[in-house]
Amino acid sequence: MNPLCQRAHSSCGACCGLYNRDGHGEAEIRARLDARTDALAGVPRTRDAFREAARRLSATEPAPLFPSVRVCPLLGWLDPARTRVGCLAHPATTGGPDLRDEGVYDASICETFLCPSHSWLTEAEADEIDVVCADAHLYGLVVTDVPFVRAVLEAVGRLAGEKPGRTHLDRPEVRSALRRLFALKEELEPGSEGLFGAFRPGQDGEPVPRSIDYAALDRDASPWDAILLCVGADPRSGNDLDRLEGEVRERLEGAARALRG
Length: 261
Ligand code: SF4
Ligand code: SF4
Known about the structure:
mainly alpha; two-stranded antiparallel sheet; 4 strands; 43% helix; binds iron/sulfur cluster
């Protein structure tokens, strides 16, 4: 499989802490990447200078949402048009020196780490996510949540009688309808556990599966439970279950209509 981090149309910085600041709306995240990219542009490509710049940048940013997940201030924009997120300390970006030791991990961890999606997603699934998201924000939220992607594609397939495949994505209306579904990830309440999939961090830092307590809400389980669970549609996550269920249903029906043509 090609690395998921930099795809043809999309890029991801989730494991470098892209979404883990208080204030994780898209505009705030983009502003933070702008500030880091601008600040680092004039910094000499030396370890001392990058260490000091990283320290100063971190001091200006809000607290992490999850303190156990590190946030690296050396993550910024790779291209002049600011469409592609990536490491500003990587030799390919600095033009020579490897300055990743001055981030929140060390260069060997940065070089070798691959998130679990690399082994869970098929190349075809990765390609579909890339083509549908085609950006540097939604993509990272989606590509790191394999159960969410599969639940969405399976539910659309159930309604349409045919699961969306790569050839369907040549049609803009199908891409756009699937994007609306994936974009549920961008519309969750601040701090919602759904930002991080169907798991929450356990006491030892390991992921613990969540579930929606329908009995406590005095209602039956939703037919879209797998999707709702991944987006954190649980009142304890700060999201309104009925509202989100309505959104899921409406967007699924829209995607099924687009797929059927
Ligand atoms: S979270 Fe996964 S896909 Fe995203 S940058 Fe990290 S390793 Fe790459
Ligand atoms: S130094 Fe490592 S953690 Fe920081 S942005 Fe680069 S790859 Fe990510």
